[in-house]
# Entry
Amino acid sequence: MNLAKLAAEAGARGTPVRAGLIGAGKFGSMFLSQVPTIAGLEVTAIADLDPDRARAACQAVGWDSARLEATAFLEDGSALAARDDVDVVIEATGHPRAGITHARAAFAAGKHVVMVNVEADALVGPALATEARSAGVVYSMAYGDQPALVAEMVDWARATGFTVAAAGKGTKYLPAYHQVTPDDVWTHYGLTPEEAKAAGMNPQMFNSFLDGTKSAIEMVAIANACGLNVPDAGLGFPPCGVDDLAHVLRPKAVGGQLDGDGMVETISSLERDGRPVFRDLRWGVYVVLKAPNDYAAACFRQYGLPTDDTGRYASMYKPFHLIGLELSVSVLSAALRKEATGQSQDMRGTVASVAKRGLAAGEMLDGEGGYTVYGKALPVARAGDALPIGLAHHVTLVRDVPAGAVVTFEDVDLSGDPVAELYRQLCAGS
# Structure
């Protein structure tokens, strides 16, 4: 509760927290817009493949000329991590391999890492967390993004003595969305391609939110950070509004839709026929609690928590998340408290690559949100040799894969790839 005070005191001492940002896209720009009004926080360096774009982003969010002149703009994220004027490295590229490289460069330089790049975290997050501990630095999820917000709610629930029955987020989902490609994504957002281009919106990135891949990545990140389970058959995306969370997101044995307690799940803001769900949670996060005894269950009712018909399950939710606008919480927490706002612990789940259509040997996979595959969350124990979506970028198939089939390591050639080997070691040890 005193993070702003700690930051202001650090600034007054002349030792503000100095952040370096890698990737000046939408998430990064939202963070940059807040920096001028946060006492004790500075951004000393920004790395982007297009430094001019990064500089333009700073201008677009209102930075004055003095702040721009005091900031270094460069192309190389690893070079940023090595700078003496950076205390916390923010990795916001969205590219798994780049995220791993930048995190390791930061650890080697003794810098804390805030991993906005959920793709990298879902792929090998537990290994990066271990490497950070060995280096004596913090590796953290990014507050404002849904996984860190859910991790906070789960931690609160456990610290107060409740069982976590379910945790996750809301999104807009229909089964047909799994086959959507960047060519037809904008119709689902109510935009024309021209409008989206004018707004600087990346069709592949936005398609990853629609085709289920981003939900799978985020739910796996939550499971791996919070010790929760991924559904055996993958995410079900049940239609559910906030008033029905405790009814729907409880075990099947007591009338719900989950395999058991302790699950991650994403709920849909659309009924299966396309009608909007009443009081949906499209932009928010939730946790469903299970009371440990009759007395606590009675308190749920007495203090107004929405419960299921048994009275034993209750829900809490946050109807929004402000992504980059909230990111400073993680940056300040890592530097001033040496504490992560959520951190991967072990590989409970993974995100398998599934063919959107029939794929032929010789085709190149284009990864998250693309034309060839979408990501499906699975328990590590059931995923077998599935190729994770984080490794399905610019890799060529060596044999045909039918539509709807899981792409496996045998379908591609990643022999000798160190990231692939690290991933497989993590899964084998889980």
